[in-house]
Amino acid sequence: AGPCPSGATRVPLSQPLELVGRVGVLPVQGPASMFLPIASPSGRAGQDWVDFGLAEPHTVLFHEPGSSSVWVGGRGKVYFFDFPEGKNASMRTDCENYITLLERKGEGLHICGTNARRPSCWSLVNGTVESLGEKRGYAPFSPDENSLVLFDGDEVYSTIRKQEFNGKIPRFRRIQGEIELYTSDTVMQNPQFIKATIVHQDQAYDDKIYYFFREDNPDKNPEAPLNVSRVAQLCRGDQGGESSLSVSKWNTFLKAMLVCSDVTTNKNFNRLQDVFLLPDPNGQWRDTRVYGVFSNPWNYSAVCVYSLGDIDKVFRTSSLKGYHSSLPNPRPGKCLPDRQPIPTETFQVADSHPEVAQRVEPMGPLKTPLFHSKYHYQKVVVHRMQASHGETFHVLYLTTDRGTIHKVVESGERERSLAFNIMEIQPFHHPAAIQAMSLDAERRKLYVSSQWEVSQVPLDLCEVYGGGCHGCLMARDPYCGWDQGRCVSIYSSQGPVLQSINPAEPHKECPNPKPDRAPLQKVSLARNSRYYLSCPMESRHATYSWRHEENVEQSCEPGHQSPNCILFIENLTARQYGHYHCEAQEGSYLREAQHWELLPDDGAMAEHLLGRARALAASLWLGAL
Ligand SMILES: *[C@@H]1O[C@H](CO)[C@@H](O)[C@H](O)[C@H]1NC(C)=O
Ligand SMILES: *[C@@H]1O[C@H](CO)[C@@H](O)[C@H](O)[C@H]1NC(C)=O
Ligand SMILES: *[C@@H]1O[C@H](CO)[C@@H](O)[C@H](O)[C@H]1NC(C)=O
Ligand SMILES: *[C@@H]1O[C@H](CO)[C@@H](O)[C@H](O)[C@H]1NC(C)=O
Ligand SMILES: CC(=O)N[C@H]1CO[C@H](CO)[C@@H](O)[C@@H]1O
């Protein structure tokens, strides 16, 4: 983005902004019959959405767990939506003010934006917007900059540069609270910041800031990856150093490499895309799970899970890469009590050797990814939930580059985690890339925004699973169970619902030993006509086949290109009349998904159907080409 056009108007900082409210309409999509659903427009069942009414090329989302509202910062506007009431308050400013930050601040909301390259903030309290003036470091000069702002009480940390044209080297700063500090320019090479967090440790003086980033690989060997993924640590109580060189710099910076590779298959995932921290339910900071989404040069993805305890241990115990003398005392990276400054010698060693030799590896005995996949995942949030029999599951929601969300269930076992992709959710009315995603674990909702709309998606979408009890349990969705003849959310039911504890053959728990048969559908067709039968592949784990009498005429394996398993009949012969069954098979589980009977007919009705069938077939062929 270049400088502002001469006609651009900034929001006058002296003038409060106008707020406008409106009541929106929230259509709710009806349920559709599915079992183990794959991408489908009906994956939207039960969700709410609101259209912006215009394109918002850059959005940020703010949602407070437990509330039914969501704030979206757009271009010159802050949208406020309440689900299910649905209203919006938009803040009218000029087209160049991209809102990049929305954060709770006491009673109100802190809003910061680019404001035509004069980064500024506003506070919104009790429906009134007031200008806080120009605030460098809180918002970037243009919205696509690599910016991260972290609030903790009165402290504010930021990676946003303060000068528009100089100071191009990205730094991690403390911009409010204690003395202002920044990272040395030599400790990171072209960093892309991903996520920052504050971790309160056992002793207050030991509190840490961890941030995750990618940077250029210092190893220029042509075999080596271009980028490496990192976690860095800083002591929250860092007061800077004693020498003129160290006085305004973080004196406790160290960084470590984050490894996400599968040694058995020799697959490496080097590009960190997103991080989600899942705190331990018992409040043990060391057991916080750090979920990292990584990709490789072919845009395949892997999810690796680390623990904060392991990260902390690497920084506390590892030697420094390339440093072969004995370490000074206190050792680099150590937080000192009582606001003691770090001795210059310790700073110099850490500043010249900021990387620890030991790498941070995923949890688990094999230190491998939780799973890898051919999808290009971008963002992740994780929900810890308890199924009705008390077993804990971690459910991952991953955004794909096609604007959908994959729901992946990790079973709670410590030793050998298993991950199962159970659903693809299309959250929007107009398919579009997902710009922001926020999880409300308490209310069990996901909020996502695209350039067109913001959408509220319930985590317990159970009505989408068709196929009766078998379909409901085969879905292996820990939020859903079978109750009184329906696949229901475990939260909506008063009493216990039937859920499976047998992940291999969950349907065996159902009262009816055999799944329901599909209803018979009939069609009359003339001889020599062209026709096709289509069977939606609702499960991503099943093989679908079309059977005519005893012969399998068409078979579609999991991972089939099209979402339907299609049987073409080029030129209908006498032998081809009769019954056709589409069957979905997964392990020992077999379900009839469709049942058709093709009947001979030479009358006018057949002509009509034939014409329709031909038209459909033609459009389908075009689609396939
Ligand atoms: C917000 O507005 C309400 C009603 O106008 C008023 O009662 C309340 O005191 C206000 N709160 C603050 C913090 O100004
Ligand atoms: C990673 O590598 C690419 C390709 O060389 C480069 O453009 C990019 O700036 C590098 N750094 C990061 C942090 O992604
Ligand atoms: C990977 O994804 C990025 C961004 O989505 C895209 O620019 C790039 O071309 C993709 N690379 C490959 C090999 O598909
Ligand atoms: C179907 O087969 C019949 C007899 O073999 C032939 O006359 C007819 O042209 C064929 N129709 C098509 C559409 O290929
Ligand atoms: C997204 C949206 O619906 N925006 C509306 C918010 O309210 C103002 C004022 O009524 C409308 O002009 C916007 O279109």
What is the topology?
Layout: E1 19-23, E2 48-51, E3 60-62, E4 69-73, E5 78-82, E6 87-91, E7 99-105, E8 108-113, E9 120-125, E10 128-134, E11 149-152, E12 155-158, E13 173-176, E14 181-182, E15 192-199, E16 208-216, E17 227-235, E18 254-257, E19 261-262, E20 267-268, E21 271-278, E22 289-295, E23 301-307, H1 308-317, H2 344-352, E24 371-373, E25 377-386, E26 392-400, E27 405-411, E28 419-425, E29 436-440, E30 445-449, E31 453-458, H3 468-474, E32 480-483, E33 486-489, E34 520-525, E35 531-536, E36 543-548, E37 551-556, E38 564-569, E39 578-586, E40 589-600, H4 604-624
Parallel strand pairs: 34-40
Antiparallel strand pairs: 1-6, 2-31, 3-4, 4-5, 7-8, 8-9, 9-10, 11-12, 12-13, 13-14, 15-16, 16-17, 17-18, 19-20, 21-22, 22-23, 23-24, 25-26, 26-27, 27-28, 29-30, 30-31, 32-33, 35-38, 36-37, 36-39, 39-40
The protein binds 2-acetamido-2-deoxy-beta-D-glucopyranose (5 copies).
Question: What is this structure, in a nutshell?
Answer:
This protein has 625 residues and is mostly beta strands.
What does the model show?
The chain is mainly beta and 625 residues long. 8% of the residues lie in helices and 37% in strands. It is built from four helices and 40 strands. The strands form twelve sheets. A five-stranded mixed beta sheet has the order 34-40-39-36-37. β32 (480-483) and β33 (486-489) form a beta hairpin. The longest helix is centred in the last third of the chain and has 21 residues, at 604-624. It is elongated and about 95 Å long. The model is unreliable at 1-8, 13-47, 89-95 and 608-625 (pLDDT under 50). One 2-acetamido-2-deoxy-beta-D-glucopyranose (NAG) is lined by residues 107, 126. Residues 190, 192, 214-216, 226-227 line the site of one 2-acetamido-2-deoxy-beta-D-glucopyranose.
